[in-house]
Prior knowledge:
The complex is a heterotrimer of chains A (320), B (237) and C (501). By secondary structure, chain A is mainly α. Chain A has 15 helices and two strands. Chain A has a single domain, classed as ABC transporter involved in vitamin B12 uptake, BtuC (Orthogonal Bundle), CATH 1.10.3470. Chain A is globular, with a radius of gyration of 20 Å. The relative contact order of chain A is 0.17. The C terminus of chain A is likely disordered. In chain B, helix 4 packs antiparallel against helix 5. Chain B has 237 residues and is mostly helical. The two termini of chain B are 29 Å apart. Chain C is α/β, with parallel strands linked by helices. The longest helix of chain C is centred in the middle third of the chain and has 16 residues. The chains are: A mainly alpha (320), B mainly alpha (237), C alpha/beta (501). At the A-B interface, helix 3, helix 5, helix 12 and helix 14 of A face helix 1 and helix 5 of B.
Amino acid sequence: MISNRLFMRLLAFAALVAVIAAVFWSQNPAFLSGGNIRALMRHMSVQGLAALGLTFVIVVRHFDLSFPGVASMGAMTLGWLIASGAPFPAAIAGALAVGLVFGLVNGTLVARFGLPDIVTTIATGGLAVGFSYFYSNGTSISQNFFMSGILDLNDKRFLGLDMPFAILMAAAGMAAVVLHASRIGAGMYATGQNRVSARFAGIATRRLIVLAFALCGTMACLAITLLVASSGAANVTAGGQLLMPAFAAVYLGAALFGRPSVGATLAGTLMMSTMLNGFTLLAIPYYYSDAIVSTVLIAAIAIFDPRLSGLLTIRRKAAA
Amino acid sequence: MRYAFFILVAAVFVAFAILRPTFVTPGNIHGMLMSASIAGLMFLGLTWLIAAGEIDVSFMSVAALSNMVTAALVQAGQGWALASLGGLGAGVAFGLVNASLVAGLRLPALVITIATGALAASIAAAIGLGTSIALNNTGFVGQMLGLRVGVLPLIAVIVAALYAASWFVQERLTFGHYIYAMEQNRAAVVEAGVPVNRMLFMLFVLSGVVSSLAGVLLAANLSSGQPYLARPISLTG
Amino acid sequence: MASGTRTVLDMRGIEKRFGDVKALGNVDFDLDAGEIHALLGVNGAGKSTLIKILSGVYTKDGGSILIGGVQHDLGTPRAAIEAGIAVVQQHPELVGDLTGAENIFLGHEGARPGLFGRIDRSGIAARAEALLSRFPIQIDLSRRVADMPAVDREIVAILHALRLENTRILILDEPTSTLTEREKASLFSMMRMLRAAGIAIVYITHRLEEVFEIADRFTVFRGGRNVACHTVTEARDKAISIPVLMLGTGEGLTFPPRMGRADGDVVLEAEGLTAAGFANVGLTARKGEILGIFGLVGSGVDELSKALFGAIPSTGTLRLEGRDVRFRSPADALKAGIFLVPGDRRAEGLTLDENVIFNTVAANMSRASLGGLMRFGANRRAARELAQMVDLQPMRLDRALRGFSGGNQQKVVIARGLYRQAKCYIFVEPTVGVDIGARSRIYALMREISKDAAVIVMSSDCDEVHGVADRTLALYKGRPIEGATDRDQLLHAGIMGGIAA
Lengths: 320, 237, 501
C-alpha cells in the first residue's frame, strides 16, 4: 500500500543518510564500527523520545516550548527521589508525573482557556526551571545513583539492543500505533488541519490537544530519565539540550516526508544524530557541530518550504 | 487580547528576573536594578515582535554571542570601543539573518529563531572554546554602568526612557498603529499599502540590536564573557 | 438611464488564458458614468476573471481597455487605482480594533505617508468628515469596526475604496451576501447615492431578484463569454429570463419526484427555539419526508442549523423521537443521531488534506475503530461502497479532498453522513459551488436518505427548497413564516417576510 511518492521520499532519505555516512566513514572508518553505531543509537534514544513527544503537539498545530524546562524539573525530581532513597521505579514515575502534570496544565491553558501557545509554554517552562532549583538550590544531584539501579536503564541490554534504544523503539512503536492506527491519532490530524470541521465531526478536539501536550511533557521526562541514567547525575540544565534537536528532528522529518509523523520524526532524529555522532567521532567540539546542525535545519526549512519549492517547480516548468 | 500578551510577557519577565541566578545578586538593590535594566533592554525587541504577532526566541543567545565577542576582543587587547562595536555587529548580523529569513522569505518565525538562537549560542561557545572569558578591566562601559542619577543607576534611567519612547512610538506614531493593526489583520495593512515586510524586517533587526547591546553591557557588568548566559533560564537553556 | 450618458469604461475583445484553458474569449463590456451595472453568471463563467483584469490583478492576453476615452493597460493594481478603479472585495479586509475612519485612511494617518509620522487624529476626523460630505451617509465612523453591524463594515469598505478623489469606477463583489434585508436596503440607498454622484458601479451578485431592485443594466457571462447585455426595463418588458441566459437552454434542474408522505414518525421537533440570529422557531421533521427551509443569507438559517446541531447555544425545547434533548456540542448531537451537512463545507465540513476514506469515516470513529484502533480494511470497503453510492468522480479513495470539485467534495460530506447512519440529516446550502450535474445527484440522494430518516434542507435558493422539499417554511430575519403553498409565496415570505395575498 506504499504509494510511489512515499517510496521516492524514502529512497531520497536513504540516499541522503548513506551520503552523510560515507563522508564520515571516509574520514574515519570507525564510524561504521559496531561500537560507534551503538553509540549513535544511544544518542538517538534521548533526542528521539523528546522529538516524538513534540510530534504530537506539532500534529495538532501547536507549539510547546516548555518541555526542556519541564524535563529539567523532571530530572531534578528523579534525582531528588533517588537521593532520598526512593526505589528507582518510583523515582521514574515521579519524573514522568512532573511531565504529565505540566503537559496537562499547558494543554488546558491553551485548549480550554485559549491562551497563545508560545508565550504560555515559555511561561510554564520558566516556572518548571524555577521549581527545579528548589530541590538542591541548583547543584547537581548524584547521591545513591549507583545503588538505586537506575543506571541499569543505560547499561542493560534488551533483545540484543542497548536499553535506551530498546525503550525508544518501544515508545516509537506505541506512538506509531496511537498516531497512525488509532482513532486518537486520526482525531489529532483532523484537529490540526481544521479544528472547526473536526468539532463538527464530533471529535473531542480540546481533549486531544490536552493529550498531545501531556504526551509531549511525559515523553520529554522519559527522555531526560535516560539522559540522567547515562550521565549518573541530575542537574538543573539537563533539559536545555533537548529543545533544538527535538524541533530540528520534527521539522526536518516533516520537510523530508511532507507532514509530521512518527516515521518522519525518527528519520529526522536519525539524520541529526548521525551528523552529531560523526562530528564527535572526528573530535569536532560540540559547539561547532551545534552550529552545523542549526544551519542544516534552517536550510531544510527554507528549501522544503512549500512556497519556495513551488517556485522551483514553476521555474522547472518554464524551462521545459 | 492585545493586553493578554503583554501581561504574559510581563509574567515571564518577572519569573525570569526572580529565577535567574546570574541576574539576581540578593542584598544589592543597585545590582538588581542594573541587572533588571539590562534584562529589560534584552526584552525590548521581543515586546515589539509579540505586539506585531511574531516571535523571536533567539534574543538571549544573541546577547550571549555579543557578550562573548566583546569579551574576546577586549581580551585580545582591542580596547572597549572596538570590542563594543564588534559585539553590536554580531547582534546586527543575527538580526539581519532573522529578518531576512522570517520577514524576507516568510519562513516560520519560531522554528527559525530557535535554529538561529542555537547557531548564535554555539558560536558564542566556540569563541571561548567552551569556557567563559574573564576580564581584568571593564573599560568605559564599566564606568558608564557605574554612573548614577540620584540613587538610580544611569542605565536604569536610560532603559526606562527607551520603554517610554517605545510607548510613544506604539501609541502616537503610525509605526505602532500599523503594528497593532498587523497583529489583528495583516492582510488589511498590506492592502493599505503599508510595507509590512519592511516593518517586520526592522523589528527583527531591532531585536538583534537591543539584545547585543544588553550583551555588551553584561560583559562589563559581569566583567567576563559568559557563553552560557542563555543557559540557566532561557529556552536554549 | 443608460442611454445618452457618458461611457467611462469600454472593454473590447478581451482575451485571457490560463495555460490551455481559455478563461475569457473575445469579451466586450462597457460601463456608463452613473449607472449600476450588474454582472451575472454561474461560478466559472468568467466574471471574476474580468474583474481581476479590470483591477489589475491579471494582465489581459488581448483586447483593448478605454477608460474615459483613454487607452489603459492596467497591468498592476496600482495602475488600476490610478485609472480611478476601486474594488470592494466580497470579504473586505478591515482591522476590528480600529475605528471606521482609521480603517478608511489606514496607511495615510500622517500629514505625509511614512512609517514614523505622527498620527494626526484630528486630520483623520476632518478627512472622514469631508468624505461624508461628498457622500452623505448616516454612519458613525468613530466607532470601532468590530462593534459595527455588517452593513456599516461594508460601507466603511466602500468609503475606503472612494477615499481617493479620482475614483470613477467602483466594483462591488457580492456585497449583500452577509447582510440582512434591512441592511441591504441601506446599502442600496448608498449605491443610489453614489450613482447620483456619477460613480459607475459594477455589481456582482448571485441573487437575481436584486438585479431588478437596484441595477440599471446587466451583463450575463457564460463559459467565458458575455452572452447578453440588457437594460432592466428592457428585460422586464420583454420578460427575458436571466436564469436561462446564465445556464443556457436545456440545462434545467431535475428534482426527484416528491413522495408526499406526511405520516412518518416524528424524529426531530423544536418549539420556541431561540439563539443568536433567530427566535422562536418551531419545526417538525418526520421520517419519510423532506422539510425545506428557505432563508436568505443573514436570515438565521445557518444559525438555526448550528443550534439544532449543538454547535451554538440555544434556548427552547428540542425533542428527538419524543424525548427532550439538549446538545452541548456537535458530539452530543451526533451521538443522539443528528447529522449536519454544513453550509461552508471547506471550513466546517471537511479535512481537505486528508483522503476520501478518512473524510468518510471521520464522524463515526466508534464504527471506524475497534478497541481504539482504526479498521483500515473495513473502512476502505465502506468508503468505496458509499463513494459508489454517491457517485464520486473520480473514484480515487486515496486522493486528498482538495483535489476534488466542489460537487464531489459535497458528495463526500454526504457519504460521511451516510456512514454515520443518523436519524435526522440537516443540509445547509447543499449545492453552493456545485455544478448542475452533481446537483441532480445530490437531490436524488436526499430523497433516498429521506426514506429512512428525517431530512431538513435549508437554503437561500428558493427554487431548490421548493423543488426538493415536501413541506416548506421560510425564515425571515430570524423569524419563521409558515403557510406558503407555492414557490412564489415561499419566495415572498423569505424576501419580504409575509405571505402574498
